[in-house]
Design goal:
The chain is an all-alpha fold. The protein is 71% helix and 0% strand.
Amino acid sequence: MDERLVTVVWFAVIAAMPIVCLFVMSRPHWSQRRAQQTALRAGPPLGSDALRTRVANAVRARATVNMWAALLAIVAYGAVAVVAPAAANASTAWLLLLVLVCGVFAVTGVVYQTRHPLFTPPTHAVRVAHVRRVRTAHYLGRTLTALPRVLLALAAVGTAVVVPLAHPTNRPLIILVVCFTAALIVSSWTLWMEHHVLAAPQAAGDALELAWDDLFRANTVNTLRMAAAMASSLPVGALLMTAISSGASAPTTTAFTFVGIPFVQLVYLAGADRVRPPLRPTLTGGLA
């Protein structure tokens, strides 16, 4: 079978995933069930019918935007893979695509969080707010907040040690330098976007609305930190690739560059849809 045809079929199968998700999400009661599941996991109740409808609509809208963005990313990557077969390498293509989709989710999450507020109280209505500045650690906890920096610090130390000792034309060394540079760029970009999200005003008419706004904001920050951690895991994997490159084939060693990505994803997905203890007092009348 022609190699390009195989690539087209492979990406068509992958593209079917967000299409199926879009079909499922179009069902009338999907958003209501998803909102209820989020409430059970995160803690804040849905309260009134108006609040339930508002949260359900926001869940559907954000999920729909993410799936359309994922579909466009898959189609774009598939087009590149057809033109440049090296991009469809079986050992790395799905991980590169995963990184691309997560990056797209980070962008759409920030845009939606800052451009489409969850609540819009009337101009002269009473509003509530936190009495102190809320930081990333309040939303994600210390571990998820620090993980990207820890990985980037490990990569920086390892790169500083390996680069002077290796030959300048060594292939694993080149990949290491490229990955570390990319990690620095992505980490700086996500920190800037995170600051933009946290600096945006929160429009909430009561403590319960504020808690739900905190939950959506926490998920946005979670996605940004996950993107930074995934990027920072690349040079750490490249260091491992450099260590074993002398006794393994090129595709095998290249795959080690991406070894940390699935684990990083699992860690951050496990921390999504949660209102952390520092913010929970807002549900009982006090403001954190």
